[in-house]
Every structure is written in C-alpha cells, then in structure tokens.
Amino acid sequence: MPATWKERFKETAKDKMGVLWSIDADGLVGFAVGNFWSVTEPGFTVRQLVIGPDEWRKGYGFDAALALHRYLFDYLNLPRVGVEIRADNTAAVRIGERLGYVEYARGHEVHYRDGGYVDEIQLFMDKDAWYERWGATEREYPPLPTDATR
Is the dihedral of CA 88, 32, 70, 104 positive or negative? Predict the structure, then answer.
C-alpha cells in the first residue's frame, strides 16, 4: 500500500497546513490525511482516512479515528474538527455518527466513482460535543489549566 501513496506523500509535503498520519497495527494498515484551518481560525479537517482492503472490518478505522480525535481535541485543544466523506462510504458515515459528528453541508455529485457521481458529506464536531460524548471515558491527555493559552 505505501507504494500507491507515493504521490500523496509528495502532495502532502507541499502543503504547510497538511498532515499525513500512518496507521500501524503490527504493520502499516492505512493513512489519515487532513489540514489545519489557519492560525486565526483554529480547527482541523480530516479529508481522508484510508484502511487497506485486506484490513477492513477489523475495527482499525474507528480506533484510528478515535485516537486522532483524542489528539486533536485533548492534546492540541482545537475548538472544532470537520470531516469530508463520500456519501457512499457507509463505514465512514457510521464512524462519523459513532464519534458524534453532525452533518452541516452536502455537495451533490462531487466525486466521480465507478462510472457515476457521488455526493460529499461534510460533518462537524466541536470540543463541547467531543467532551460530552468521550471526555469521561476516552480522555488520554489531562485537561489544560484554565489559564493556558493555545
């Protein structure tokens, strides 16, 4: 799988606000790609979270998404995170719902796939929703002091 992502590595390296994570489970099983919004508007958009087909249905997608959100909300203390997914990606839609995302926009016929066009769904979650849903059970990093700045 890494060989097929060579171009993606190059493109991500050009983007100063872009990040590419590798997902490892006794070997490379996938990648996550996203972008920070800006210094003045802190936030992050997950653009892709890809698990290799041989590793599907093993829980790696949700586990990786949960760990990534722990990092974004708990460690980086970002106020909001978004995700863009194709509407036909049932697994991604389920992961987004399970994490606590809400749909805020939909692009019609945005992606060309398998001979037809597919909608794109844009989901959103803010820090309060994250802590309400996951703060009591999944917090990996201690809360920042109230006087801490970002």
Answer: negative
Q: Which domains does the chain have, with CATH numbers?
A: 2-134 (3.40.630.30)
Q: Which two tokens stand for residue 146?
A: 């109230």
Q: Are 99 and 73 in contact (CB under 8 A)?
A: no
CA gap 64, 53 in Å, rounded: 15
- Type of residue numbered 13: A
C-alpha–C-alpha distance, residues 85 and 71, integer Å: 20
pTM: 0.81
pLDDT at 3: 64
Residue with tokens 């106020």: 79
**What is the Cα 23 distance to its own chain's centre?**
12
pLDDT digits (tens, 9 = 90+) for 11-48: 777 888 888 888 888 888 888 889 999 878 889 999 88
92-93-94-99 Cα dihedral, nearest 10 degrees: 90
Backbone angles phi, psi at 90, to 5 degrees: -60, -40
